[in-house]
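Case study.
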Amino acid sequence: AQSVTQLDSQVPVFEEAPVELRCNYSSSVSVYLFWYVQYPNQGLQLLLKYLSGSTLVKGINGFEAEFNKSQTSFHLRKPSVHISDTAEYFCAVRNTGGFKTIFGAGTRLFVKA
Amino acid sequence: DADVTQTPRNRITKTGKRIMLECSQTKGHDRMYWYRQDPGLGLRLIYYSFDVKDINKGEISDGYSVSRQAQAKFSLSLESAIPNQTALYFCATGVRRREGLETQYFGPGTRLLVL
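After joint prediction, the assembly is written out as follows.
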């Protein structure tokens, strides 16, 4: 079975500052990893995914994430955030042979002017 | 137009009432899912369907039922709503890619309040 832990429930940050949203996972099998974003009153939208290969994955809106197998982490980063990045971010994991996606509890990012 | 639509977007009901949440998709995907989202818990899978004749329980199916009326429609029912079913409900569709990885697309959600 897989599980996902998002270490921060809320992250406040000033506009143009860098941000890191932390995600750790546990699994006994190889996995795919995802970050989704949920803007207010909208559904989830895929931000980026790690399947295999390069451990640094680039996504939409200037976000990137780094897969660290030894630390079982998949932290999301952005060097300079905008007000429009205010949203909830979900880390998710799926084993490579399956279809069920396990979601973390979410991290609410607040970007302040 | 949105590819995955959910109706209603918001609903208030009373304990014991039967409620149906509907999901439609124009993506042509075979796979459809219902999730519920609760604060601090992320999304949890209620039911999923790989085609019209293939429906399966997810991790929290108790108190819910589903109907896959057509490839494009997947409805979630609460036979007798209770307050702890107050949540945000998401429908999603899925398509399996050539490399074996599925991509999921989410609807905008239905906010349900059970009084």
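Observations recorded in class. The mean pLDDT of chain B is 92. The radius of gyration of chain B is 14 Å. We will return to this complex in the next lecture.
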